[in-house]
Structures are given as structure tokens and as C-alpha cells.
Specification:
There is one protein chain. The strands form seven sheets. Strands 1, 2, 3, 4, 5 and 6 form a six-stranded mixed beta sheet that branches. The protein has a four-stranded antiparallel beta sheet with strand order 9-8-7-30, with no helix packed on it. Helix 3 (about 50-65) runs parallel beside helix 5 (about 140-160). Strand 27 (about 385-390) and strand 28 (about 400-405) form a beta hairpin. By secondary structure, the chain is mainly beta. The protein is globular. About 15% of the residues lie in helices and about 40% in strands.
Length: about 425
Amino acid sequence: MNAKALLLSLVLLPVAALAQAPVIQISGANFRPLPLAAPAPLVQGEVAKASTQEVDDALMYDLRASGIFQVLDRNSFLADPKEGMAAGSINFSRWADVGAESLVKYTLAQENGQLKAEARVFNVGSGREDFKTTQSAPAAEPRELAHKVADAIYRFYTREPSPFLSSITYVRKSGANRDVWVADWDGRNAKQATRGGINLLPALGPDGTLGYTSYQQGKPDLYVKRPGGDTVRIKTSEGQMATGISFSPDGKRIAYALAEEESAQIWVAEVDGDNAKQLTDTRFGINTSPSWSPDGKRIAFVSNRGGSPQVYVMNADGSGVKRLTFQGNYNQTPDWSPRGDLIAFTARDERNAFDLFTVHVDSGKITRLTQDQANNEEPSFSPNGRLILFTSTRNGGSQLFVMTADGNNQVPLPAQEKAAITTPDWGR
């Protein structure tokens, strides 16, 4: 987080909370997940049982998948389930007995078509209320309410925005079709964006613009759909094949690969395809999979110019090309962290299994994130750079998983249908 953003986040927090609130330092060797107890909600008035369950399921998933909390098993709780919300009514010793260091309690109510939640965060050791938040959402959107509450708790502990209010996109295979879907960060509330045919490699722009590759015209072309607008095809010349759209951080430009005859080159253009400019020029070489740096000044991409697919970076005007990966002979699908320090990528190891790695942009240090769990591919960073979305076949089919940026806390997205899911992208 830059200094300006940090200052703004501090201004938005109550002074009393800032003076006493613990801050979870997510990075570093001393990091450990915070043991947190979160009992079931206290329901006030008439709230549908299904809505209550949806809110609670989504909130618990957000907290567990965040990687910063050790959410304790409710079956271990010793406190009275009817215990109140005020610090004076809570027996903190009972929460300490189960290992909790923080306690989250929340209520649910429904009024005038709105679901409302009040959540309070307590320091178990001191018996102090550290934080309180009140959130609301339409009664028809209980999971939205859960994500708002989880976001507020995450921000309190980290002084950073969470990924819980963001969206993801991916391709789902159904018979001979490959369709693009857009969903909430946890894969729920999924909406189909294309209908039939072969549609691949979707990406979300910062304003929710959706881009993808489609064979609607018989060859791969790029399509862009703005929120509430029509879908527009990015026109290319006869014989050219465009794939792998990537939006710049400001959403004003796109990078993509344009193949013609025996080579593929990286191009950039405005979102509508105007003012296109070729960046790479390796005759008979393949350059693909562009990914923008968070400041929009550089682009990571894959090239076989050295004899095998490797990750490279270059300036956004095509100058200053630098090879980043030297280990392995098949590295692909780079994704640049919004924090700027890491690029995640897929690599094939000596056993022909696909696994995920990161490379530090400045030092070139490689870190392995997955191993010995079938194939793991196609990483995409969360908007805050703390989590990575990816596909894995460890459960038999290609499913979506999420983990922390250092490879810990690998968990599947909830209740996925048994369909092959590929090429996820996490909207910025």
C-alpha cells in the first residue's frame, strides 16, 4: 500500500480503534494466522432461515480463505450460545479456553427489503470491543451482505481492502462448447456471458469490462463487452489470429497476441482496437500471454525466443526486454501481482506435471507454490495481491482453488459443479 492510500485508510478508522487495534502483518517470517472465534449469528426478528444460512456460509468461507485467520471449529466452543453482543455480557475466559484471541459476533435482521448485519470484534485477552461495523444489502442478496461484513473485518485487521467484493471470470466446458462465466470472488452468483461455441481466455478490466477470445467468425478474434453495453469484435486483418486479451490497470489499453503465418507477436491498442502497435518482433517466434504491471509501465509475456517457453518482461512500448525465468523448459501463463513484486506462472516439471510458481521481478528468485497434487495451472492474483486463484485437477476434474500468495491455505471454491473449468482471471 502506498503512503497516500495508507493515510486515507487510517483517516477512515475511528481514532479510538486505531489507538488499540492489532494490525496483522501479512508478510514476513513471523506471520501466523490469528485464532478467531465466530459463533453463529444472533437473529433479530423474522429472517428467512435460508438467508441466514447463506450469510453465515459466505462469511465463514471469506474469513477462512483469506489466509490471515485461523477460524476455530464451532463444535469446540464452550460459551453460552445465547451470550449477548456487549462486552459486559461475554464470558471471555470461555473463549480463551478454546484458543481464541479474537472474537467476532454478529446479528442479522431484515427490514424494508434489506438484510442488515451488525458485527463486533473483541480482543479476548483484554475483554475489549475493538471494532464495530453495520452493513446492509438487498434481502435477495444475502451473500453480498456477508462479503461486506468480511471486507470490513479484513480492513480492520490489515488496513487493506479485501478481495471479497471483487469478481472473477473463467471458461466452463459443456459438451463441445466453451463458455465464459462471470461470478463473485468465491464462484457463487455465476452468470453466463457467452452462449455456445468456443470462447476462451477471458479477462476483466478494472471497470468490469469483459474481454475474451472467440471463434465466432471461424478463427480466434478478440471480443470486448462493456458493462451494460454491446459486445464488440476487435477487427484484425485476413489471416491474423488474436488471442489472450489483457487490460491495462487504467482500463484504457489492451495487450494481446496476434498470430500470422509462423509467428505470434505482442500488440497493444486502445480498448476498441484503435491505434494498435506491435511490441515484439521475433521472426518465426511465438510471443503470447501478456500481463500488465500494476503501474502500467511494463508487460510480462511468454516467448520461445530462447528455445523454450519462458517468462519475459518489457517496457510497455516494447523496449527493455528482459528474460525472467531460466529454470525449466516450459513456463507459461504469467500474471503480475497488483503489489508489483511477483509474477505467478505455470511450469511443467520433470515428471510432466504442471505446478505453480512465483518469480520475484527484481531478484529473479523462484518460489514453488504447489507440488504433488495433480496439475495446478493458470494463476491469477486477487486485486490486493494477497491471494491467487488457480485451476487444479487434484479432486479429479479441473476446479477453481484459491491460496495465499506464498502457496499456503489452498482451498477449493465452494460447491462447484462437475464441469471442466479453465483460464480464470480475477478482476482488478
